[in-house]
Amino acid sequence: MLYPKANFYLLPSRAWELLAGAILAIILPQLNVKKGWLCQLLALIGFGLIIYSIVSLSKIDLMPNKLTLIPVIGTMLIIAFANKETGIGKILGSKPLSGIGLISYSAYLWHQPLFAFARVRSLGEVSVDTYAALIICTLILAYLTWCFVETPFRKKNCFSRRQIFFSAISGASFFIIVGLVGVLTKGIPSRLSGDAAYYASFANKYRPVNGEICYSNRHNLLYPPQKQCIYNKDYNLNIALWGDSHAGALTDSLTQEMLMQKQGIIEIIYIGCPPVTGFKHYTKSGKCNQFNIEALKYIKNSDIQSVILLARWPLYIEGKRFNNGEGGVEKGSDGYGLPIGRDKSFVNNAAFIPEIGKIYRRTVTELLNIGKKVILVYPIPEAGWNVPDYFTKIHLHDYSFLKTITVSTSFNTFKLRTKNTYEQLDMLPNHSNLLKIYPENVFCNTILKGRCVLELNKKPLYYDDDHLNYIGGQLVSKEIIKEMKAKQWL
Question: CATH homologous superfamily of domain 202-486?
């Protein structure tokens, strides 16, 4: 699916659901099945389909698709057959559920800002207890809105049509203007001051500006060599940085370090795609494998001597987004990788991890076999929290007890997260042209025992919840240079 968000939110892909309701409205008066066992059965089937949808369907299924027929048909059966003569109809028509139905639209409108502001205010994942309290608040506010807003507006003698339209247009205009101001000013940064503004700036201040120019994706394929992706052009192009956006995050800092070594470097990046062939993404359609086949072909036929391979290796094996166990839970859909020719069910197969590991090792071996020097960068610690946001919230909401500590995550959590990845990469035999770099030696168990630091001297090392910024990238880049020099590759 090329545009999952547009598919979910926009009318063209949702029109058939509205049409289903319209068809039902036309044929409903002609249905004579109003009681008896058939009516009971169809209402029960409809209820079962809705319960099944709640339990089994998830955002991974990228709605709407053919699975959307399940809740749509279930809803149609409920509307058509769950009357007061059926058991399901009596349950759904009970006073508690009818009451919730009356205030449901107000509840829908209230829950979004309450939940959103709770997430903005919280340093980590909002707790179940907090959500429970917010649900209660939502129902109370929804009831009051139903009493004092919805009900009066339904009475023709309370408001004229002109007043209603004027109020609607004025309210919509106000929120449109506020929204535009927010978008055009990138969040009205002037609302922040002092330390909060300083830390908020790290979300953009140290991003890999040059690196992101060369990011390929399914909409924009930049097969190497691209002139704008070659750096330090006064020197021989000896180095290739190949990987996903985590490799791209190192581009600016690594380019500067290589400049001091008088080395030209090319960036070869495809977002969400490790530098291997025979690989596809679990949920995204794209041209990852096609891109990497061309990248490998270019490297083989070029004068490049050393290839730096870097990716978010654990995500493609573990699939789930990172949870640091301390409130930092990364947002996003599952990120499993799949071998070409396998479907989603393969992630539950015992052969899944060994198969992905084999794909990882195969490309390294191919590069070694053609005489290239390979610098394999092992996993970079993930944060879980959006690090600039986390610091901003600490200072914006005055979490004074956190201002004096070094923000970090558990080293043990990192080791558990990367265990399978390390096992697979460690199967690569020693080779004179293979150099392994361990970012954990930079971030973990150094400044703080048993911890992986996310900041250095009160400067965040990440620009989001898993990508290094220029400062963090500089630390890894220096480690790469140091180890390459030790092997006399520079």
Answer: SGNH hydrolase (3.40.50.1110)
